[in-house]
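2024-03-11 09:14:02 DEBUG pipeline.ingest accepted 1 chain
2024-03-11 09:14:02 DEBUG pipeline.ingest length=130
2024-03-11 09:14:03 DEBUG pipeline.predict start
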Amino acid sequence: MSCNTTECCSNIRYPYRISRIIKIYFGLSIPSGGNVTEEQFNNYLQKVLLPVFPYITIYTADGTYLNPQGKLIDEKTKVVEIIVSDTSLISNLKNQIKQVIVPYYITFEQNFLPFVIFIKYGNANWDESV
């Protein structure tokens, strides 16, 4: 039997729980020159990020920031989204985020690494930017 309408699937129930959606923005420009290569970024993912957060979504975006000298900089950016619903992980979330962003910040000489945590509870959303 195939399900092509919402009618036949209306009896499906999902658990009602709090989730955190984390977005981390990884700039690909290196201030001293050059860019983080795809190979370097994938190496970072394998060695640093995925051991802490094994389920992620990644996409490339166009980012813009104001550098310390006041110049507007355009750069390619990797956005990593992480959904955490396990309450045992939520309590240590900010430490886990620091654990994955500090090595990138140092290795690729970043000026800053912005991230935001969205909280989803049922159908309501609000953000807990940090």
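2024-03-11 09:14:41 DEBUG pipeline.report The radius of gyration is 18 Å.
2024-03-11 09:14:41 DEBUG pipeline.predict end
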